């Protein structure tokens, strides 16, 4: 408390609130506090800081501002655990002791301030500052993703044009995917054909020492030709289907080559009204001219 000098409280008042609270903590010779986990001392520090703001606002000299902080801290300590009647008695006794240190105006202002803050909310002060609290604190760090920086309006596109371009890109990607699939299918069918041919030639090592019979050789050749034809037929069916799919994609892309014209903005305001009025008058003039030219029938 010896560091709580007029110059010290003046520096507290002239600083921003976070820096002022920290400087006041050092003047009170308190240890560093965790604002989240040591909420009681944090609230007490706020209370003492607000007493400085009040005293300076009421025009207290800096010496009396320092005394105001000491008075408030002593009052909170001496009334801890007391009833409200005892607290009022302690407050009155301490104010009488300070009569010689403060003038009547400042003493009355100090009395009103403590009555409207401390005495009026006495039970809350006792609950927060006079009892140990079971604090269960969970701190969660949440990462906030800000939206991307939008492009300038000059780089914007009409919605219909943008959808058209996206459709063309999708059709091109689908065509590339179809061609890649056809190549993979060819490779798979070729591997299957080789596998079937290997399975039908289990006796080739035996024929290295023995000439095969004509009938066996013919059957072997016919079966190999049959396998190749079946594989080729299946490959042709897939190629035809994929070719039709690619042609369909090309046709769709051709139909989408011409980008749609952006929709014109609706005409509003006085110019739009003038245009509508001119069109109405022109139609009326044409109707009148047509009536004049119509033949007159007499009976």
How would you summarize what this structure contains?
This protein is mainly α and 299 residues long. It contains eleven helices and no strands.
Your description of this structure?
The chain has 299 residues and is an all-alpha fold. The chain has two domains: 6-129, no CATH class; 157-259. It contains eleven helices and no strands. The protein has helices spanning 6-14, 17-27, 39-57, 62-78, 84-97, 104-119, 122-129, 159-199, 204-207, 214-255, 269-293. α1 packs antiparallel against α2 (17-27), α3 runs antiparallel to α4 (62-78) and α8 runs antiparallel to α10 (214-255). The longest helix has 42 residues, at 214-255. Residues 265-270 have low confidence and may be disordered.
Write the layout of secondary structure elements.
Blueprint: H1 6-14, H2 17-27, H3 39-57, H4 62-78, H5 84-97, H6 104-119, H7 122-129, H8 159-199, H9 204-207, H10 214-255, H11 269-293
Terminal residue distance: 124 Å
Structural class: mainly alpha
Share of helical residues: 55-70%
* Overall number of domains: 2
Radius of gyration: 48 Å
Overall geometric form: elongated
Q: Note the total helix count.
A: 11
* Main sheet record: none
Descriptive tags:
single chain; 299 residues; mainly alpha; 2 domains; 69% helix; elongated
């Amino acid at each position: 408390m010896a560091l709580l000098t007029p110059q010290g409280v003046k520096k507290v008042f002239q600083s921003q609130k976070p820096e002022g609270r920290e400087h006041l903590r050092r003047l009170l010779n308190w240890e560093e506090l965790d604002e989240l986990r040591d909420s009681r001392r944090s609230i007490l520090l706020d209370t003492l800081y607000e007493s400085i703001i009040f005293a300076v606002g009421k025009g207290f000299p800096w010496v009396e501002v320092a005394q105001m902080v000491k008075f408030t801290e002593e009052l909170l300590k001496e009334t801890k655990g007391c009833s409200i009647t005892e607290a009022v008695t302690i407050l009155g006794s301490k104010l009488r002791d300070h009569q010689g240190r403060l003038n009547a105006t400042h003493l009355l202002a100090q009395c009103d301030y403590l009555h409207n803050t401390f005495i009026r909310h006495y039970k809350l002060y006792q609950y927060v500052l006079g009892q140990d609290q079971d604090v269960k604190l969970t701190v969660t760090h949440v990462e906030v993703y800000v939206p991307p920086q939008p492009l300038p309006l000059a780089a914007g596109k009409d919605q219909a044009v943008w959808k058209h371009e996206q459709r063309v890109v999708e059709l091109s990607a689908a065509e590339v995917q179809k061609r890649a699939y056809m190549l993979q299918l060819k490779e798979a069918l070729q591997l299957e054909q080789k596998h079937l041919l290997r399975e039908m030639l289990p006796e080739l090592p035996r024929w290295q020492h023995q000439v095969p019979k004509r009938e066996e050789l013919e059957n072997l050749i016919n079966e190999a030709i049959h396998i190749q034809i079946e594989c080729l037929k299946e490959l042709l069916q897939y190629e035809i289907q994929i070719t039709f799919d690619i042609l369909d994609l090309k046709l769709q892309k051709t139909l989408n080559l011409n980008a749609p014209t952006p929709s014109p903005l609706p005409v509003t305001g006085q110019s739009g009204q003038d245009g509508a009025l001119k069109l109405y008058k022109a139609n009326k003039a044409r109707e009148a001219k047509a009536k004049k030219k119509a033949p007159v029938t007499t009976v």
